[in-house]
Amino acid sequence: MAGVEQSAGGDLTDFRKRVEELRSARALPSQEQQPMLDAALFELQHVVDVLLPRYEGLAAAGRNNGSRAGTEEQQLLRALFQRTPCVVALLDPDTVVRRLNFAGTILFGMRAGYATGRPLTGSLAPEIRAAFRSQVAAVARNEGDRSMVVRLLRTPDGPGEPLRATMTALRPPGEPGTAVLTVFHTGGGAFPSHEIPSINGIWLGDEQQGDHGEQRAHLAEVKQGAELMDLLDDTTTALLSGQPAGTAVKAGGPPAAVERALRELSGRFADWVVLDETTPAEGEAADGAGALRRTLVLGPDDSEDLTAALAGQDPAQCPLAEDGARTGSSALQVRPEDVADFGHDAQGAPLLVRASVTSLLCVPLREAGGPVRGVLTLFRTGARQAFSLPEAGVVDRVSRHLALALRDTRS
Predict the structure, then answer these.
(1) Whether residue 83 has pLDDT greater than 60
(2) Which tops the pLDDT comparison, 324 or 10?
(3) By the 8 A CB rule, do 137 and 94 touch?
(4) pTM for this entry
(5) Long-range contact list for 282-287, CB < 8 A, 24+ apart?
(6) I want to staple 374 with a disulfide (CB 3.0 to 4.6 A). Which of 77, 273, 277, 401 is the partner?
(7) Does domain 222-410 have CATH number 3.30.450.40?
(8) CATH class as words, domain 86-195
(9) Structural domain boundaries in the chain
(10) CA dihedral (201, 203, 205, 208) positive or negative
(11) Partners of 168 in the beta sheet?
């Protein structure tokens, strides 16, 4: 135990020296502060990963003669949090402030006591609040660290200052639940020259980056918007091509126009496309919503076994699809927490694990005011970028078009 105490004392001594060096970052020009800000974030992570667990272990041992040292260590950590040169906030999953350091009170223009218990989004530009809340909630769910660009509220002189927010999850000792440690980098040095700030996965420029950065930002937005419009146009064209009069629907499969539209999504937009259609019970009208039946599975060419497993699955054993058909609500998941959400194969293995799903969209097929005519589920796997909110919006439009096509076929 004495060796542990000596090791902890040496780490704290070195840690204190590094903190003193980091305080000198205030005197540097903004464009030279990035390495020091990165180092400060690294030291904060060191506190979370090393010093706090060590302190908790010593406290759990119940050594009375170590209580004073533990108190001094806690005081040091509090002083580090308060006096670190970068803006640091400890947030609840819904962005409510638990703690705000001294630099944060200056940046956001509020006292620490006033900020505690209030959502930090009140200090941010309205257009970014929803995205910031979503990212904080994702970090609190242990879906990984996040980084995004936010803006302060607009001032009389123009747009609010851009901030780069870096978030990581931690569990403060003696406090309930998971908190989100958020560091806000300010000034031009917060954005390296090779990087353009990101909001919702779209890389954006700002005034401090000059005309070249703004041009690249607009091009990124235009490119993504054009790609999504092309996708919507291609799926709609496939549906409007229709099905020749008198042509019967392929047994066990969807209408030809619906299948053509879904093939536009396969590979290009999603790695897997799964369609479950509702089948009215015997004696019910065609508009009646009955049990789901799987009519189409599209996936990579080299995944015949998994394709067969998905095609052979009873949708009644797929909680995600069943919930979508029952409630008519969509689901967007990144790194799904419940691997059983899409059911299991014949051997009992979760299908989401077999497919290496990293993000999914599950959307009911229903026109405005009409019944649910099916459920469309899209998977992205491996290192592919997760589905974004703009992409989910396009799929929602496609789902309404598909519902109309299924209605006309059943009529």
Answers:
(1) yes
(2) 324
(3) yes
(4) 0.50
(5) 286/410, 286/411, 287/370, 287/371, 287/407, 287/410
(6) 277
(7) yes
(8) alpha beta
(9) 1-85, 86-195, 222-410
(10) positive
(11) 181
